[in-house]
């Protein structure tokens, strides 16, 4: 069984400030972890993924996330927020090495204030 | 990179009619596709896993006779909402694994279904 918890359904930051979106997972097997971004009325775009290689993963648009097994966390960060980062962000987990589907967190709406 | 095309992006239909949503993998073969439903300001809920050449696997609570899934080729899966009702109004998104043994999932752009 696997699940994902995203702490904070809404996060607001000022433009230029650090972005931190939290994700904790639960998985009975070694997980693969993902962060997706969704803009209104659009599908999901992959930001980055962890697949048991380096624990610090760099993604697109300046985002990165660190897999911390001891904390069962995979928090998403970006040093400096941009207005275009305003969107919904989803953390997801899947069991490694299988064809099983993703399990999504409840999402975090990021607002970037001017 | 892998691209999944989903069509239509928006559809409005009358209550009692059926609507078909298509999901195509444009530059790869997708033996497995996934159909999700997303309620406003909510996460994605997996409805079913579509396997090419076989019956779809539905998640608990999803009516298979209402949400018909066909995956007749390696590049096309369809979701048909039969006898649609206003409560079926939602955002539907498909996804495909970009390699049979891979860890990548590519998403379509979604379909906004409104039943009036």
Verbal overview:
The complex is a heterodimer of chains A (114) and B (116). Helices cover 0% and strands 54% of the residues of chain A. Chain A is mostly beta strands. In chain A, strands 2, 5, 6, 10, 11 and 12 form a 6-stranded mixed sheet that branches. In chain A, strands 3-9-8-7 form a 4-stranded antiparallel sheet, with no helix packed on it. A two-stranded antiparallel ribbon of chain A has the order 1-4. The mean pLDDT of chain A is 91. Chain B has no helices and 11 strands. The N and C termini of chain B lie far apart (37 Å). The radius of gyration of chain B is 13 Å and the shape is globular. Classes of the chains: A mainly beta (114), B mainly beta (116).
Shape annotation of chain A = globular
Q: Got a strand count of chain A?
A: 12
Name the beta content range of chain B: over 45%
Biggest interface, CB < 8 A: A-B, 23 and 26 residues
How many whole angstroms does the radius of gyration of chain A measure? 13 Å
Q: Specify the biggest β-sheet of chain B.
A: 7 strands, mixed
Helix coverage percent of chain A? under 10%
The percentage of residues in β strands of chain A lies in: over 45%
Average of per-residue pLDDT values of chain B: 91
Task: Give the ordered list of helices and strands of chain A.
Answer: EEEEEEEEEEEE
């Amino acid at each position: 069984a696997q699940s994902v918890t995203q702490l904070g359904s809404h996060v607001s930051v000022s433009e230029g400030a650090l972005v931190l979106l939290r994700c904790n997972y639960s998985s009975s097997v070694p997980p693969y972890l993902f962060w997706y971004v969704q803009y209104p009325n659009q599908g999901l775009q992959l930001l980055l993924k962890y697949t048991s290689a380096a624990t610090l993963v760099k993604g697109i648009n300046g985002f990165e996330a660190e897999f911390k097994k001891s904390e069962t966390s995979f928090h998403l960060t970006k040093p400096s927020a941009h207005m275009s980062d305003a969107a919904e962000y989803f953390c997801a987990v899947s069991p490694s090495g299988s064809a099983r589907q993703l399990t999504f967190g409840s999402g975090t709406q990021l607002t970037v204030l001017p | 990179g892998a691209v999944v095309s989903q069509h239509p992006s928006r559809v409005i239909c009358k209550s009692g009619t059926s609507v078909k949503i298509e999901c195509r993998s444009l530059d790869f073969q997708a033996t497995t596709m996934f159909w999700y439903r997303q309620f406003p300001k909510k996460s994605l809920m997996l409805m079913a896993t579509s396997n090419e050449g076989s019956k779809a696997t539905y998640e608990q609570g999803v009516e298979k006779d209402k949400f018909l899934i066909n995956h007749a080729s390696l590049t096309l899966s369809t979701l048909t909402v039969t006898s649609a009702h206003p409560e079926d109004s939602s955002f539907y998104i498909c996804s495909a694994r970009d390699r049979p043994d891979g860890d990548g999932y590519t998403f379509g752009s979604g379909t906004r279904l409104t039943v009036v």
